[in-house]
């Protein structure tokens, strides 16, 4: 598409951050892959479902922190987070993880933790998730009006992933606060300061687990590293960081976004209350309709590549919009309609290919248990404020600042 190649990049600004879906619809109608500027960086945004699936498995698109850092350094005002790893432990932690790597390094790292996220392992966690959900709802019963994010959607996945990994209960709230602050940090200096603090904490926690191993994921990763020499110390810290943050933030916002969608569509909420067999499909529609991760992580082209007929030159950033792909009318009929009876299979909320989120079964399980328990416990749940007051303005993750509701 010569027109798209020659077109000046479109700057995605505040309107995109507030609500990306109208922007996606306008760009997607024009082209499957658009030239844009996001966060100050020019890049190619993949918008249509078929093009997104192809891009997520395209070997000429690389997850390469060093190459991304060099490219970012060319653009004015962009701080290359992936620049020399020796700058700080936090910077290393932010880039040396599976989401930012290609095979064979990605394959080696993923293999180490994949066994903790099998369907059997997630099923075994179900009683513990149900217990945590019940305890959290016991705490809010009778309060009338609560912030559902603060008292429920955030504490649930933080508790579950922390227990899996081995973060002591006394430290979980602090780690959750760091994770939240890191997600909304705007200035690179602030991001690196928070990341350095998290890296320091995780380094100490790993040392403690090495001295006194337990039945948790950190101890298992240490054993694999020390016995088989598979993980460097930096890789170990980055692996734990990724699992904690990815297993916490995205699931919390999946639950929050899903509940908001139900509360904004009373007919769908009533249908789910009347027929709980719709719950599993409702969670898939949560993922498709308003997923917490609507943009994939950055890739960079190693050579010219054609995506859905659009030629992308070498040394260019490419980012796949999972949210735009999930609202593609060529794949989902009437995609702006929230419908828990929809056959939402095939959505890309958890990615596709080798970087497909291995924590997807855990996120689905927590969302299903959480929403089902909320509806069982409270016959009436109503929004306490206007929906437009709830959104937070963050590029990568899509979530809420709060979710005040009245319970009855």
UniProtKB/TrEMBL annotation:
Keywords on record: Heme, Iron, Metal-binding, Monooxygenase, Oxidoreductase
InterPro entries, sorted: Cyt_P450, Cyt_P450_B, Cyt_P450_CS, Cyt_P450_sf
Pfam families: p450
Keyword Iron: yes
Tree of life domain: Bacteria
Family per record: Belongs to the cytochrome P450 family.
Official protein name in the record: Cytochrome P450
């Amino acid at each position: 598409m010569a027109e798209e190649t020659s077109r000046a990049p479109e700057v995605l600004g505040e309107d995109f951050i507030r609500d990306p879906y109208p922007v996606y619809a306008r760009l997607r109608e024009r082209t499957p892959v658009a030239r844009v500027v996001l966060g100050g960086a020019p890049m190619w945004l993949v918008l249509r479902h078929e093009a997104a699936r192809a891009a997520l498995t395209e070997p000429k698109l690389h997850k390469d922190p060093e190459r991304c850092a060099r490219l970012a350094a060319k653009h004015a005002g962009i701080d290359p987070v992936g620049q020399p790893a020796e700058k700080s432990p936090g910077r290393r932690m932010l880039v040396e993880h599976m989401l930012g790597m290609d095979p064979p390094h990605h394959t080696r790292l993923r293999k180490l933790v994949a066994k903790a996220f099998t369907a059997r392992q997630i099923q075994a966690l179900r009683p513990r998730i149900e217990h945590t959900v019940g305890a959290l709802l016991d705490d809010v019963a009778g309060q009338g009006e609560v912030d559902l994010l603060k008292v429920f959607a955030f504490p649930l996945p933080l508790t579950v992933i922390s227990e899996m990994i081995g973060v002591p209960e006394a430290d979980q709230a602090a780690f959750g606060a760091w994770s939240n602050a890191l997600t909304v940090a705007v200035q690179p200096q602030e991001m690196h300061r928070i990341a350095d603090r998290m890296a320091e904490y995780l380094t100490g926690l790993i040392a403690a687990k090495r001295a006194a191993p337990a039945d948790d994921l950190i101890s298992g990763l240490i054993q694999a590293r020390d016995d088989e020499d598979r993980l460097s110390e930096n890789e170990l810290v980055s692996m734990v960081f990724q699992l904690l943050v990815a297993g916490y933030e995205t699931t919390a916002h999946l639950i929050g976004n899903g509940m908001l969608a139900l509360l904004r569509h009373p007919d769908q909420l009533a249908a789910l209350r009347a027929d709980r067999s719709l719950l599993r499909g409702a969670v898939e529609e949560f993922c498709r309709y308003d997923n917490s991760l609507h943009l994939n992580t950055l890739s960079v082209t190693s050579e010219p590549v054609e995506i859905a007929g659009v030629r992308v030159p070498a040394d260019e950033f490419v980012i796949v919009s999972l949210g735009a792909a999930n609202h593609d009318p060529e794949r989902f009929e009437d995609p702006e309609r929230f419908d828990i009876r929809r056959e939402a299979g095939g959505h890309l909320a958890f990615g596709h290919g080798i970087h497909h989120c291995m924590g997807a079964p855990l996120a689905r399980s927590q969302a299903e248990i959480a929403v089902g328990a909320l509806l069982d416990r409270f016959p009436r749940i109503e929004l306490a404020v206007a929906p437009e007051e709830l959104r937070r303005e963050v590029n990568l993750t899509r979530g809420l600042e709060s979710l005040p509701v009245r319970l009855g």
